[in-house]
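JOB MANIFEST
job_type = single_chain_structure
chain_count = 1
residues = 185
[input]
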Amino acid sequence: MTDVSVVSSESSERALPLTGRAARDAEFTAFVAASAPRLRRLAYLMCRDWHLAQDLTQTTLAKMYASWSRIWRTANLEAYSRKVLMNTLLDQKKRRSDSEVVLAELPEPPARPAGSTRELSVTLLEALATLPVHDQAVVVLRHWEDHSVDTVAEILGVTPSAVKMRNARALSRLRALLGDDFPDP
């Protein structure tokens, strides 16, 4: 059976049928247009760097394109793209931590704005960045993306009990960092 898609041009009333690779490429282009912003936001929440988030998104989409002929009609593409993104992020974190240099002294933190009610003001994203990468992934997927424990377990390739344990540990640490600013879920 041949897959057929139809593309119409504004300059022409006649529709051109697409078959085979052209149809798959058109489907992939539509998927990228719909999913890239969501993937980029998810990547940013995990790494807190828009440039790195863009690179991770592009790498994720490149990996998906390489297997597109196998997955484009059979898989849940949203779930698959999240899983590929998380695996790409975890691989990148492993590579990056091997090349990081530990400094003898930390630089002075920037001065806090005048009138701040707390001497140490920690935003949620800054606090999230202090968590281990797997705990970050659990918090972002569970509470930002609002996925179930089972879905997060599937995306990260761990058991549901591991997701629950990481979630509890991460929320406890966030509560300790943020104090009264962090409401109970």
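[summary]
The helical segments are 20-47, 50-66, 68-71, 77-99, 124-129, 133-144, 149-156, 160-178.
The two ends are 50 Å apart (CA to CA).
exit_status = 0
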